[in-house]
Amino acid sequence: MSQTTVGINKKSKSLPPGIIVKLGKFVWTTIWHLMMSQLAPSQKSGEYVRPKSQFRHFVGAEEGNLYQPAAGRYRLFVGLGCPWAHRTLVARSLKKLEDVISVSIASPSSDAGIWVLDDPYEGCHTLPELYQLAQPGYSGRCTVPVLWDEQTKTIVNNESAEIIVMLSAFNEFSKHPELDLYPEELKETIDLWNDKIYHAVNNGVYRCGFAQSQAAYEKACDELFVALDEIDAVLATSRYVCGDNVTLADVRLFTTLFRFDAVYYGLFKCNRKRIKDYENLGAYLGDLYQLPGVADTCDIEAVKRDYYGNLFPLNPGGIIPSGPDMKSLFEPHNRDRKTKTQFVST
């Protein structure tokens, strides 16, 4: 056999690199779309659509309401990495309701794709088991946060935007009853900002990270940074989004901003600008972080672990970054110079 024939036979036994790359790309892209369809349902355009929450009851002192406010009756189930659950912890802390509403922590399981309770509760080890306890036969999404009624053994509400509003129903038990995060005279303004912040920022970062087409990503990214620029401009003359005092608009914005540079900037491709690079947003984030009790609700290591370690389609290697440096949150913010009122820290 000639050397030429041997060379041909050797080449025929190995696939050209181009074919390997194309095959690998096809297989991974197909699997990626399949996983993303379960993780983040999208429209035909590839734009992420967040499913609606299912439990929408309210705690209130109205006559006939099954869920009356009481100390020790209710429990929050939260994930420390989840921004939606985090906002309930921030509002609970600002209102000083730690002794009124208890908390149970859940952690995401990357293998099972569910929330697992750090400590078993009522015989439940996972959040799906808790949902089944509340409503046998339930087949919907099992998400945090959950506001649980220990008296009726059921879920009152699992929509974070509504839970943080209803915490005002516990004012008689609060150590900060004078703090109104949703004052009547500002409700319309707060609602307008909440709608804008939810669509473009809170959910906007997910619309960037979970986009399944270039067009969907660019649309979400454009809307995100237009909104951040607008908020930054407002904060040039106002300490908080709606004026001199912290409101629910700030609470809802804070949990996204806290995660932005560490997670959304890189993992979710929101990398046009970091929050710390903005003229006002960076100091504003530090201002909120330094409010009494807020820092105690923040766990940046849990945030990075939950996002980088559990969103396999976005980070297949599961490698968790060591940064960024969060020391700017502790630096003097000087935001109090923009307001006539001061936050009471009792």
Instruction: Flag low-confidence runs.
Output: none
Mean pLDDT: 90
For the sheet with most strands, the description reads: 6 strands, mixed
The termini sit apart by 92 Å
Q: Strand pairing plus helix content: what structural class? A: alpha+beta
Count the helices. How many?
11
H-E order? HHEHEEEHEEHHHHHHH
Order the strands across the largest sheet as they lie in space. 4-3-2-1-5-6
Principal-axes shape call: globular
Outline of this structure?
The chain has helices spanning 3-12, 17-39, 83-94, 127-134, 160-166, 187-202, 204-209, 214-234, 248-264, 281-289, 300-310; strands at residues 74-78, 102-109, 114-121, 124-126, 146-149, 154-157. The protein has 346 residues and is α+β, with helices and mostly antiparallel strands.
What topology emerges from the helices and strands here?
Layout: H1 3-12, H2 17-39, E1 74-78, H3 83-94, E2 102-109, E3 114-121, E4 124-126, H4 127-134, E5 146-149, E6 154-157, H5 160-166, H6 187-202, H7 204-209, H8 214-234, H9 248-264, H10 281-289, H11 300-310
Parallel strand pairs: 1-2
Antiparallel strand pairs: 1-5, 2-3, 3-4, 5-6
What does this structure look like?
The structure is a single chain. This protein is α+β, with helices and mostly antiparallel strands. The protein has helices at 3-12, 17-39, 83-94, 127-134, 160-166, 187-202, 204-209, 214-234, 248-264, 281-289, 300-310, and strands spanning 74-78, 102-109, 114-121, 124-126, 146-149, 154-157. Strands 4-3-2-1-5-6 form a 6-stranded mixed beta sheet, with helices on both faces. α6 (187-202) runs antiparallel to α8.
